[in-house]
Here is the input.
Amino acid sequence: MAGASASAAGAALLGRSGQLRSAGSASATAPSRLRSSGGRLDLDLVAQETEVAIPGGPARALTYNGLLPGPLLEIDPGDAVRINLHNRLPRPTNIHYHGLHIPPGGSGDNVFLSVGPGESHSYAFTLPADHPAGTFYYHPHSHGTVADQVFGGLGGVLIVRGALDRIPAVRAAAEQVLFLKDLPAERGSSPMGMGLMLGREGAVLTVNGQVNPTLSMPAGGLLRLRIVNGSSARFWRLALEEHPFHLIATDGGALEAPVELVELLLAPGERAEVLVRGERQGGRYRLLNLPYTRGAGGMMGGMGMGSGPGQQGPVSIATLAYAGSVAPLPLPERLLPVELLPEPVRRRRFVLNHGMAPGMGMVFLINGRPFDHGRIDTRVRLGDTEEWELVNDGVMDHPFHVHINPFQVISRNGKPEPFRAWKDVVLLRPGETVRIRTRFDDFAGRSVYHCHILDHEELGMMGILEITA
Here is the structure.
């Protein structure tokens, strides 16, 4: 569904509340897909509360167009995109096009825009003709409501097609999108105090809005998984029984060659694309979410912050089932070149921590200051390459996200990164120092950088970045 038909379908949802049904155990289906046509994608997108039927989950969730996750948007470089957002929520909202390299102001990726309850706004932008292929993510980003709205269910996948999709082995693979989202339990209470400070995690783990769906793959084939962490605070540590992952792309696009992994860790907002080889002749294999502790230390009296309420061991979140066989498909040996950024013209240091602020209580800080919407924290020049030293001086993990321009991780704790990749989220564990390098290309204006544990962002761990021509 694309162009005018996508817009008409969205408009039809304006007149009804909708109800989302989700199977407890079913074949995994990708989110409802909307494909651009004739160089355009036009869509009405309705943010609203919707009844849901997810085993053990809440009775209602926040959705786009009545869907959890929202419609999967598929576009090409050079496409003109128009999305009419209609806010049927009781609080302000907006849309952040997470990972896209588009203008940060006006009707582009403008996170300072606020669409009030009952109001609408039209986003309109053209994707650059040289935009890399990849798996991206859209979600609300109105400061003061973003954590509630993402935790409540809002989010969707945005795919940009391109050169990676034309590599023969990648093109031949079966493709499956996995949108990972945790939801509160059926009778989950509203978290206060410590729950907000740690970052909320829901006890119900879903893949494309389903509990433990089934993925199908023939023996000998390749399965391409596009995986999105759409959670507000949960880290997903994934492993597939008796099958390694072959990483072919990260947040910002393709690697130079596949990297074999036994497990894959995704912080909130991170994406990855992996190939799985059909190396077995049959059977069923669990896709597991493994326990993960995202911090520890003195503030909690040594108590670690775990991978979710009640999770003590591996949890099956989906099942890979073999069905039939095909002629064996080899893994690609090479993918796409990753540009080496030039030496930086400037270096900066950002220290992430927490503290107490008069009248505010617990706050999360960047360089000793909580977020202030009236303050420009960092000014850079259009076209410059900079290197940022990121230091986690606290006791919790912080995934650091930069809007508009992707970056490359240069080193972690003084050790060079093993391979080049384009990223827009990088994890900093307590005590870690990470150096990233970025170039501020094409677009001037204001954007932000922040911790993508969204409760931490709401409690102050965000700064405003101004790119000047």
